[in-house]
């Protein structure tokens, strides 16, 4: 079985890594190059870069950072934020990304997922879903960093995205994101058990045991971590050891 | 400096492959030109996506003949992911499609032979390489058995001659062929360019091997 992937997520604004709560209230925590290098050395299985302002200002500003880090880091790099066209994807791949995650542009025009996966392969196209709980067992997919409603049910949208060609799903709980109170296990499980492709759980990890829970209970295939790592509360080795101790395969 | 020619037949992200070979000390040329393939010193056939699209991409650029000629000349070729699969006799994704026929066997998906599949397909992530043949003298020479490498695929080759299989990996309860070597051909189902230090060591061995 493929090991559970532990994936640091760097939210990037300009030339800084930032961190917020519920995708808002941002603080600068450091430089992306430094984080990427450190996490790669510590055993990150992949990296996710989130260009958190791109979808607001409709521009891509991450290309330089991707280019600077890709020449020295040889694990898969996923980039997300403001990707609207296949040209955007081509530019990111050229700069050094291996995959892209699409949210806002896909909800606006679902065919974009199909176009992107035909052109670059499904393995390159991750559907990013920012989900907000509406009630028991019900979540809405939001867009624009959790600011706008899409009117789509998150679980149904995940299924549709896979049918359109997405090769993985990145699911972020807007409710849990940045709180350190644990993942939305029910949300992750609802999506992970509904789609045939890998699901990356994101938002809320406050301890290695939260990560174990989202794999055991949430059935996540991979976990994205931000604040837990950035503030030094834990590290990749501790998270992987906790997973291994629980009998979950990881790359050590 | 060793020159490595990477075949661009329109499928997948070649930049990641090119960067990794450069980091391993090679001078990298990306090309779709049949002449450049014919005159290459070392050839890399990368690629991701469907078998049929891969063959269409090679044919559209008149690259089938040059790649086959290159291999028959005895110079070293490395296949990666779809590039490995295309070396086989036949693919089975979206209908049976003839491949380059450089290694006998078919390209199949998990469970195609009736074995139960107990996990998600595509197989995306890191899995361990288990020896199935002699690694000494191959690109796997410098890595430890059990090293993890990065996969992203739904299909894999099933060579007719088990002796060409140097490594297997296991996913969803199924052991599958992950690395083959036949004479001057070596090929991986995983992505060495995304497999961290282990992947770079594999690439470096290819770059430094005597041609």
Largest sheet of chain A, if any? 8 strands, parallel, barrel
**Principal-axis shape of chain A:** globular
The helix content of chain B, as a percent range, equals 10-25%
Round the mean pLDDT of chain B to the nearest integer and report it. 95
SS element count, helices of chain B: 6
The biggest chain-chain interface is: A-B, 31 and 36 residues
**Structural domains of chain B: how many:** 1
CATH architecture level-2 label of chain A: Alpha-Beta Barrel
CATH uppermost class of chain B = Alpha Beta
CATH architecture of chain B: 3-Layer(aba) Sandwich
CATH topology of chain B: Rossmann fold
* CATH superfamily grouping of chain B: Class I glutamine amidotransferase (GATase) domain
The termini of chain B sit apart by 13 Å
Give me the strand/helix succession of chain B. Answer: EHEHEHHEHEEEEEEEEEEH
Structure class of chain A: alpha/beta
SSE order of chain A, one letter for each helix or strand: EEEHEHHEHEHHEEEHEHEHEHH
Q: What's the CATH class of chain A, please? A: Alpha Beta
Oligomer: heterodimer
Per DSSP, what share of the residues of chain B sits in E-state strands of 2 or more residues?
Answer: 25-35%
Write down the CATH topology of chain A.
Answer: TIM Barrel
For the largest sheet of chain B, list the strands in their spatial order. 2-1-3-4-14-13-12-9
